Amino acid sequence: MTLPRDPASTSSVFARAVEELHQTISDAERPGILELHEVPAPRRLAPHAVAFSAEVNKDGDEVATGRFVVLHDPAGQDGWRGDTRVVAFVSADVDREMAGDPALAEVGWSWLTDSLVGRAAQHTAAGGTVTRTASLTFGLVEEPEETNEVEVRASWSPLHEADGSLDLSVHLQAWCDLLCMTAGVPPTGVTALRSRAPSA
């Protein structure tokens, strides 16, 4: 796959890609589980941008949130290796055992790469961080309340198709898969890796 050779043509390509992106929002959503909303996009990072936020609910509780931003600069920017850059963020509650697992960072990053591969979201120049945090809340409750979270911050450059078009939908769907996996909710069409033990 290659990038368009004429930078002046990429703005119209990006506009069409954003139109298609809006059309796939309803397909990516899962009522009662995954909800998506368009939000104001940053305007100082690139000439063109679009952004979405999402929440994942499990058993009626919000267990993960995230943001998906697409930046587009017809001239490209240093480090992008292209004219378009996805900047993604995911934050999810995890249990104490998972938060204490030293392999959580590597596993969290593999969730992202596996999601991109699973959706055939062709890209380059991927980078980011995985952070695990544990905190205790005092004073507002009778007993200190412990919370554990994992955060994935990543960016990558989607590649254009051979005909010069740009499919952002698969990148959004990969991000939704990452949100669900981080929250412990199987992505659409995927069964949970951990099943409940049979009752006695």
Describe the fold and architecture.
The structure is a single chain. With 200 residues, the chain is of the alpha+beta class. The chain has one domain. The chain contains 4 helices and 6 strands, in the order αββββααββα. Strands 1-2-3-4-6-5 form a 6-stranded antiparallel beta sheet, with helices on one face. The longest helix has 19 residues, at 10-28. The protein is elongated and about 60 Å long. The model is unreliable at 1-9 and 190-200 (pLDDT under 50).
The overall number of domains is 1
For the largest sheet, list the strands in their spatial order.
1-2-3-4-6-5
What class, by secondary structure content? alpha+beta
CA gyration radius, whole angstroms: 18 Å
Biggest sheet architecture:
6 strands, antiparallel
| Overall morphology | elongated
Strand content: 25-35%
Portion of residues within helices: 25-40%
Output mean pLDDT. 82
> pLDDT below 50 for ≥5 consecutive residues: which ranges?
1-9, 190-200
N-to-C CA distance: 54 Å
* DSSP summary, beta strand count: 6
Can you give me a brief rundown of this structure?
The protein is an alpha+beta fold.
Q: Features of this protein?
A:
single chain, 200 residues, 6-stranded antiparallel β-sheet, 34% strand, elongated
